[in-house]
């Protein structure tokens, strides 16, 4: 289940140890990367902006053929539009159309082995977060959505909220598997360590949590 989110692929080398539980990695973008660690690489279509979609089909093909990547992540925090203009798709109808244009055709090209993730939403209040996710799934009729992707940022002393949010994401996503592609608590180093000592065993024990990646 455990993965690494990164900007520089060399960062993943810190997790290549004999007792590592890390098996996959992603960099919230799509460029084909030769992973120095051998971890499974999952490409993401950051947004529906021209500079992202113009390269998407070619990079999908390269990833499938070169790295045998059959999981693909959709838009990164399209619900966060105040300070996130490059990825913002506030209208779920527009997001659904973009998903059908750029994500859905991957299965047509490569068949049943392809698995597609929902847009990765924040844990913001409605109309953001899980409200956005629910509306996207309802709007994206006929879409192949094999798992839902979420992010979570809050205080390290709020583990109960973390668990509740993950459970609510499972329900909001129509009981699809959940990928937590970004999460990070705030607080002192001791508080963060205490949070992770609770969170990681709990995530590992939840059958519906398919993958998770601590942010940086």
From TrEMBL:
GO CC terms: fungal-type cell wall
Alphabetically sorted, this entry's keywords are:
Hydrolase
Q: What are this entry's molecular-function GO terms?
A: hydrolase activity
Give an example GO biological process: fungal-type cell wall polysaccharide metabolic process
**Hydrolase listed as a keyword:** yes
Q: Highest taxon of the source? A: Eukaryota
Domain Asl1-like glycosyl hydrolase catalytic as annotated: residue spans: 3-216
Q: Which Pfam families match?
A: Glyco_hydro_cc
The protein's name: Glycoside hydrolase family 128 protein
Recorded source organism is Pleomassaria siparia CBS 279.74
Q: What is the lineage of its organism?
A: Eukaryota, Fungi, Dikarya, Ascomycota, Pezizomycotina
């Amino acid at each position: 289940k455990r993965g690494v989110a990164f900007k520089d692929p060399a960062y993943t080398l810190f997790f290549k140890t004999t007792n590592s539980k890390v098996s996959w990695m992603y960099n919230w973008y799509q460029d084909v990367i030769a992973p120095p660690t051998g971890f499974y690489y999952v490409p993401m279509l950051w947004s529906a902006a021209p500079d992202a979609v113009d390269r998407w089909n070619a990079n999908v093909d390269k990833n499938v053929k070169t790295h045998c990547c059959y999981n693909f992540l959709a838009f990164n925090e399209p619900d966060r539009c105040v300070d996130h203009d490059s990825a913002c798709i506030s209208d779920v109808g527009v997001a659904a159309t973009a998903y059908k244009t750029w994500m859905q055709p991957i299965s047509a090209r490569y068949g049943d082995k392809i698995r597609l993730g929902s847009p990765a939403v924040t844990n913001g209040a409605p109309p953001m977060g899980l409200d956005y996710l629910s509306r996207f799934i309802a709007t994206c009729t006929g879409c192949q959505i094999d798992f839902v992707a979420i992010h979570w940022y809050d205080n390290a002393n709020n583990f109960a909220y973390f668990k509740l949010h993950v459970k609510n994401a499972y329900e909001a996503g129509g009981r699809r598997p959940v990928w937590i592609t970004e999460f990070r608590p705030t607080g002192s180093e001791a508080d963060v360590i205490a949070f992770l000592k609770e969170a990681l065993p709990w995530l590992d024990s939840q059958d519906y949590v398919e993958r998770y990646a601590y942010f940086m």
